[in-house]
Amino acid sequence: MNLSRREFARLAGAAAVVPFAPSAAFAQGGAAKKIRYCVVGLGRISLQHFMPGTKMGSLGEITAIVSGHRDKALKVAAEYGVPESSIYSYEDYDKIRDNPNIDAVYIALPNSMHAEYSIRAANAGKHVLCEKPMANTVKESEDMIAACKVAGKKLMIAYRCQLVPTFLHARDLVQKGSLGTIQAVESANGFNIAKGEWRCNRKLAGGGPLMDVGIYSLNACRFFLGEEPVGINAYTSVIDHDGRFDEVEENVVWTMKFPSGVLASCSSTYGASMEGIIRVHGSKGTLTLTQFGYQGIHLQARINGVNRGDPPQMIDDLEEEKDPAQFARESDYFSKCILDGLPVGPSGEEGLKDMKAMMRIYESAAKNA
């Protein structure tokens, strides 16, 4: 996926809150240097989304693999032209330090392993792109940030939605006052999880749907409003006693109050199909954003006219890029930040804010149990 300079300017400005500065390679009109990624973990999100996305993009390439399954790694390496010498196990992971063909790692492991392998990557002198949630605890998240700062390496958390133009358009409508004074936000996201998923193991996942898909709702509320919640109240429940939810919640709902007075209500589940959606209500109109998934984001908004009787402005904006296009954008964005020395928008600090909020949600739910 080739992103224009204008589009990268928008992503850099909106997501990273910094001006766009073309890399030296672009300024000279030549081919840009590519960032070389080591993929850590060959699960679904790596094989079906990030790796094909990086291949589709312009500024990244897969040059190394870390896996506990040698045969699987050899097969994937052959597909991406990765030499056998650049296939690592988890035991010899630290040897990536000695591989000059690795600039950054992509961490796609169970949540409980994010901190360890991100910190080891930073210690090995590599930049880190880590899937969300960034870790299982606030302390682990803080340790990740500290390790990358000490190493002088970038840390990005994979909030791909923050890089999608339709998502950014929606935030612009909210923050520029197009909807008037914002009063309330509502969001939901969930699915019916299969038995045997590692996400139902508290030690590996850190929690249930909140840590997995509920984080989309939490992050979207914070991102759109540009504020941090000052009050949180939450409840969790288990309805299906079929063995899936012996360790984690099946359902979670929470409300948040923000400094501006905006109230948000969110819900997430592992027990039913729940369309990813966020709806923002303002004094002049309402916008609805659907599909946090990989197949395109749909924005609809109704903005009232200035005068009584004026026809409302209707916005119907569908992001038609199909999977793995969002991952191509994510890979290219992080690569661009590395190449041009730009601050990362979806940074470790951004991930830490979500971690702190999620811990407050769980604390509130425990008190309300």
Relevant terms:
Rossmann fold; alpha/beta; TAT_signal; Dihydrodipicolinate Reductase, domain 2; 2 domains; 369 residues
Tell me about this structure:
Residues 35-159 form the Gfo/Idh/MocA-like oxidoreductase N-terminal domain. Residues 167-287 form the GFO/IDH/MocA-like oxidoreductase domain. GO terms for molecular function: nucleotide binding; oxidoreductase activity. With 369 residues, this protein is α/β, with parallel strands linked by helices. It folds into two domains: 5-160 and 326-347, 3-Layer(aba) Sandwich (Rossmann fold); 165-318, Dihydrodipicolinate Reductase, domain 2 (2-Layer Sandwich), CATH 3.30.360. Helices cover 36% and strands 24% of the residues. Mean pLDDT is 91; it is low at 1-6 and 12-31.
Report the uncertain regions. 1-6, 12-31
**What is the molecular shape?**
globular
How big is the Rg?
21 Å
How many E strands? 14
- In percent terms, what proportion of residues is strand? 15-25%
Oligomer: single chain
CATH architecture of the largest domain: 3-Layer(aba) Sandwich
- How is the main sheet built? 8 strands, mixed
| Total of helices | 11
For the record, the CATH class of the largest domain is Alpha Beta
Family: Belongs to the Gfo/Idh/MocA family.
Keywords: Oxidoreductase, Signal
GO molecular function: nucleotide binding; oxidoreductase activity
Domain GFO/IDH/MocA-like oxidoreductase: 167-287
